[in-house]
């Protein structure tokens, strides 16, 4: 069901709104189901529940792998580009990937993993990470991938929340010129995780690691002994496929649950249409599989379409800021999908890294994760796309499973910094503070979605009430995205950023409360308040206001100590860019911190603080401003 032109998009969109069940059923029927579905959709946004293709049965890996064995067995499925540019790239064909996934499926089974068990995966960007994900899906185990940059504490929180039975990891990782311990971090993490029975360790760096007899096993040995065929588990469409933890405005990160049937249909459909993927094209998504972009558009979406997906282990600046462009040339990449923060940082390093590169293979460029500002859009368009490649600025979220508002490459007329128009099946609506619909064009509001799509979040693991209250209670009857949005005179959508207490740091979602909790764990800290502020490269930076028991004697050491605590509790991505020691925080009489004021101060806008009359002690604000100057 591929959209051919703008008129076709409009017709398809109309159909998807008027007859959503018919529309999605026809797409879903293009896949292999072990038992066809007869019911398409059952939903309720008030007492939240959504079920797609409910009585159908399938295995997503049959559709990612087995289905391609008769047509393209020897075509590349994954091209692994190692960290070192001098090391040979490794290609896994569909046949090879299938065999290796089957082997690891058998390894997992032999270690006692059964359908429905949770398996944590904490690995760097090597092919075995994709293999681990698919092996879980093949046997019906629910994978929970934890991004390789998270701390031991974060891993154990995630493992404990869903009681993972097994964890897969590596001895170490290499990123740029850094060596990073993985197994050691896992050892620290699982000291606090009673549910973990086995640790499976892939060798990557040959760093010495401790291997506990009876608990820890080597991946390579186990894989070499395993059979290369494994029958896929038959899953109900609504059985969970994976859990992925993401931050919200309050509390600990929550486990977003996606299910087998709907997620498959949605990621496959959006991948093919948004990128207008043609068979045989090489596609390169720079996201880590530890985030939703890697799940949906490095692993599942591309493989469901029989695509060739490049998996890059390193960083964009190693050995220099031309690495992405060298990879594009080396593998003749046609479609390139990255994040605004990467574009901005490469832009800042000078054009000499990009101008002399051969980027003639490129056909489509993509962006994801945060607003793509106009300056970066133009640089991407001119220097990388040479004005010939449409840029698809894809707006979506961990919870949406796949793209929601996005251009369709080469079809939707573009506007820099706009996500443009909703994809078929997506019904956006803007509402005001009171939940009243804001109609017409040339308006701003809170972005909600009023009708389910197959990739929508099903629940937050172990706590369905949290799912209901986070997404469906703010504006009853609507899914609330947490984003602010503008709809211009042409009906085009532009995402303006989060309207809740979630920050977007280099495209990573981090809750202010999470960082505050980590800072507050530091000895001598009484209280803290964290806000985001505009940052040239990262999009947003983290600004922390910290009250200590005694004003620190050595400010700079105390700052470093706090950063060390945040790194230990969450990971380096959550380290504040600025820490200001204060003696009080602006609070209302009811004790609520007025973050609006703190955000203004962090932005350096001291003159326009707005109404401060409800503050308990307005003097606090002056002290904060003089400390910030
Ligand atoms: O604020 C939006 C921003 O990223 C948030 C979702 O973050 P996460 O769940 O980590 O998923 C990121 C990858 C899909 C959104 O609520 N965001 C994502 N894409 C865009 C964006 N903001 C503006 N433009 C985008 N294209």
Question: How would you describe this structure in keywords?
Answer:
8-stranded mixed sheet, globular, GMP Synthetase, Chain A, domain 3, Rossmann fold, 18 helices, 7-stranded mixed sheet, alpha/beta
Write the layout of secondary structure elements.
Blueprint: H1 6-18, H2 20-28, E1 41-44, E2 49-52, E3 57-58, H3 60-64, E4 76-81, E5 90-93, H4 94-110, E6 118-122, H5 127-139, E7 142-145, H6 152-162, E8 166-170, E9 172-175, E10 178-181, H7 183-190, E11 198-202, E12 216-218, H8 219-225, E13 235-236, E14 240-246, E15 254-259, H9 260-275, E16 282-285, H10 292-304, E17 308-312, H11 323-330, E18 335-338, H12 340-348, E19 364-368, H13 374-384, E20 391-394, E21 428-431, E22 443-449, E23 459-460, H14 464-472, E24 479-487, E25 493-498, E26 502-505, E27 508-511, H15 512-520, E28 525-535, E29 539-548, H16 555-569, E30 578-582, H17 595-603, H18 619-628
Parallel strand pairs: 4-17, 6-7, 6-8, 7-14, 8-11, 11-12, 16-17, 16-18, 18-19, 19-20, 29-30
Antiparallel strand pairs: 1-2, 3-13, 4-5, 9-10, 14-15, 15-23, 21-22, 22-24, 24-25, 26-27, 28-29
Helix pairs in contact: 1-2, 4-5, 4-8, 6-7, 9-10, 12-13
This protein binds adenosine-5'-monophosphate-propyl ester.
């Amino acid at each position: 069901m591929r959209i051919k032109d703008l008129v076709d998009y409009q017709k398809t969109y109309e159909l998807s709104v008027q007859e959503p069940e018919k529309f999605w059923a026809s797409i879903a029927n293009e896949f292999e189901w072990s038992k066809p579905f007869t019911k398409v959709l059952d939903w309720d946004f008030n007492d939240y529940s959504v079920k797609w293709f409910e009585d159908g049965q399938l295995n997503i890996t049959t559709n990612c792998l087995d289905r391609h064995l008769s047509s393209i067995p020897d075509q590349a499925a994954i091209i692994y580009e190692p960290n070192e540019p001098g090391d040979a790239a490794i290609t896994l064909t569909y046949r090879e990937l299938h065999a290796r996934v089957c082997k690891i499926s058998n390894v997992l089974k032999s270690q006692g993993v059964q359908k429905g068990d949770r398996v944590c995966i904490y690995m760097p960007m090597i092919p075995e990470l994709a293999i681990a994900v698919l092996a879980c899906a093949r046997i019906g185990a629910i994978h929970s991938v934890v991004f390789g940059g998270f701390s031991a504490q974060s891993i154990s929180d995630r493992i404990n929340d869903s009681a993972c039975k097994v964890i897969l990891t590596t001895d170490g990782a290499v990123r740029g010129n850094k060596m990073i311990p993985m197994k050691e971090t896992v050892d620290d993490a699982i000291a606090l995780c009673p549910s973990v029975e086995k640790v499976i360790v892939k060798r990557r760096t040959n760093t010495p690691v401790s291997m506990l007899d009876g608990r820890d096993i080597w991946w390579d040995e186990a894989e070499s002994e395993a059979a290369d065929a494994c029958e896929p588990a038959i899953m109900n469409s609504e059985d969970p496929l994976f859990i992925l933890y993401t931050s919200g405005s309050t509390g600990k990160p929550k486990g977003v649950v996606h299910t087998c049937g709907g997620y498959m249909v949605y990621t496959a459909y959006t991948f093919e249409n948004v990128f207008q993927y043609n068979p045989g094209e090489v596609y390169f998504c720079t996201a880590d599989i530890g985030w939703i972009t890697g799940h949906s558009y490095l692993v599942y979406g591309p493989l469901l379409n029989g695509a060739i997906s490049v998996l890059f282990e390193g960083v964009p600046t190693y050995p220099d800021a031309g690495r992405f462009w060298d990879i594009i040339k080396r593998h003749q990449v046609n479609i390139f999908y990255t994040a605004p923060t990467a574009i901005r940082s490469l832009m800042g390093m000078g054009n000499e890294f990009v101008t002399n590169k051969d980027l003639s293979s490129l056909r489509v460029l993509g962006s994801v994760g945060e607003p793509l500002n106009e300056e970066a859009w133009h640089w991407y368009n001119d220097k990388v796309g040479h004005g010939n490649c449409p840029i698809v600025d894809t707006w979506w979220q961990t919870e949406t499973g796949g793209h929601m508002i996005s251009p369709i490459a080469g079809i939707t007329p573009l506007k820099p910094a706009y996500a443009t128009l909703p994809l078929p099946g997506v019904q956006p609506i803007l509402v005001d503070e009171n939940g009243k619909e804001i109609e017409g064009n040339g308006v701003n509001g809170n972005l909600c979605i009023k009708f389910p799509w197959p990739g929508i979040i099903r629940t937050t693991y172990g706590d369905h009430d949290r799912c209901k209250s986070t997404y469906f209670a703010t504006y009853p009857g609507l899914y609330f995205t947490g984003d602010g949005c503008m709809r211009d005179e042409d009906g085009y959508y532009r995402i303006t950023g989060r309207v809740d207490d979630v920050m977007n740091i280099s495209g990573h979602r981090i809750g202010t409360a999470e960082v505050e909790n980590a800072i507050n764990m530091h000895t001598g800290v009484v209280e803290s308040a964290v806000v985001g502020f505009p940052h040239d490269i990262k999009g947003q930076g983290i600004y922390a206001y910290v009250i200590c028991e005694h004003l620190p004697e050595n400010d700079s050491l105390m700052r470093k100590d706090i950063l060390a605590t945040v790194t230990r509790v969450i990971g380096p991505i959550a380290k504040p860019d600025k820490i200001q020691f204060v003696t009080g925080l602006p609070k209302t009489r009811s004790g609520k911190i007025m973050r609006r004021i703190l955000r203004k101060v962090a932005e350096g806008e001291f003159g326009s603080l707005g109404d401060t009359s409800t503050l308990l002690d307005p003097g606090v604000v002056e002290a904060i401003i003089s400390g910030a100057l």
